[in-house]
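Page 42, continued from yesterday. The earlier attempt failed because a stray header line got pasted into the input along with the sequence. Redoing it now with the clean sequence only.
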Amino acid sequence: MFTPFRRRFADLTEREILALAISNEEDDARIYRDYAERLRAEYPASAAVFDGMAVEEEGHRSRLIALFRGRFGETIPLIRREHVAGGPSRRPVWLMANLSLDRIRAETRTMETEAEDFYRRAARRATDAATRELLDDLAAAEADHEARAEELETEHLGADVLAAEGAKARRQFVLTWVQPGLAGLMDGSVSTLAPIFATAFATQDSHTTLVVGAAAAVGAGISMGFTEFAHDDGVISGRGSPWKRGLASGVMTATGGLGHALPYLIGDFRLATGIAIAVVFCELWAIAWIQHRFMETPVLRAIFQVVLGGALVLAAGVLIGGG
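This time it went through. Structure tokens are written below.
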């Protein structure tokens, strides 16, 4: 966030540093509470871990307020992260919809690292022994939060709970990234076969085939990506962020089509076509592997569905173009 009036961290007084620390702890506690609330329905045990971390931050805030009152009185100036250049920062990821459990945990680790660094720097600025001691203690506490988080996980998360939450997280990954990406790859690889190879065998010209193939692939990618983004916001279906699904679908659709269009950069038509056909079968086998790996489709059925279907579309394009 850009704020026109920002103080340098090096210019803050001890009173202002303590006020900033109080504000930071309050914000972090609220962030952890927000994470806990988001996770409570699907991951109640992990929500309890974040509740515990919020309690830790609230305890830090209370200690800082007590120290501030003892040194500077009751009036705590309003100083926040965005008011200080060179101070700790927070990306507002908690405002994003459909945050995954892994992303929340990663952001938490970043928060603790930044908080530890802030307290180390603040302690070096402190001239009062009691203030420096508290800031050093809080830096150590932030460094120990990962261990504390592990203790809370041990308390709230048994092996069965961890396994269940891991299965939910994997399912969410499949719904948000793999499923739309796989649909895009299948559409891009299979639906563009007929127009690309029909053009190739009708014109016998690499450049024309490349232009038609690139246009078909990019157009299909835009269409699939926009459709995936627009048709489901993920709230009711639980399939995750629409822009993530749209990105996965669009990129993989374009990739699937471009895979067998780009060989026509080669001027020799026969060589380019031979490479393009080889690329097609690699794409189809990749689709079958992804179906088996992530969608748990039996190997033989995945091969039959994808490879046979793709081969039929390829043959149709060759026959139409050759006719």
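Notes: The longest helix spans residues 159-191.
Reminder to self: strip header lines before submitting.
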